[in-house]
Sequence to fold (222 residues):
Amino acid sequence: RKEVEQDPGPFNVPEGATVAFNCTYSNSASQSFFWYRQDCRKEPKLLMSVYSSGNEDGRFTAQLNRASQYISLLIRDSKLSDSATYLCVPSCSSASKIIFGSGTRLSIRP
Amino acid sequence: DVKVTQSSRYLVKRTGEKVFLECVQDMDHENMFWYRQDPGLGLRLIYFSYDVKMKEKGDIPEGYSVSREKKERFSLILESASTNQTSMYLCASSSLLERGQYFGPGTRLTVT
Fold:
């Protein structure tokens, strides 16, 4: 099993829709979790941090299920500018154990 | 506002050359990282540093070395560049407490 697994997509949804994607991780020692977004040919940008059961920031909600070892990202009222690749990162106390998922591509159509 | 800068956006070097990639952060972060990103392979950690003069190998350290003489600066060195080191190189930093990483704009290195 890969350490971090994400559905590569692409998810192609209309503007205004709600979209959600999951990320599963294999290391049960992971303590903190992050979602990044990466636009084409740009660097990843930190989107959300998740330390307990979940986090909400405007249209974005991240939820953590430790028992099943997955985190999800929900985007409500999606905008064209949300089109990007979303990377999931579970993190342990050791920086050497930070593993980036390969990302889920999201495309919002008008 | 958080800022991580990298010395070059694009770099072309010849096989066998020594290459220096520099990264500077202005957030007083303890941790700094070097990654490479290749299509289909995602982000792979080369080295990271959790303090001045401290470094640890990541997943793919072969062919690379690093230097961290000052807290804000982390350098990646390719001792003898090879064509399979053609890639996008990304530097990042994070604090000990928050741990979310902030990335520089990347250096696209081509080795011919």
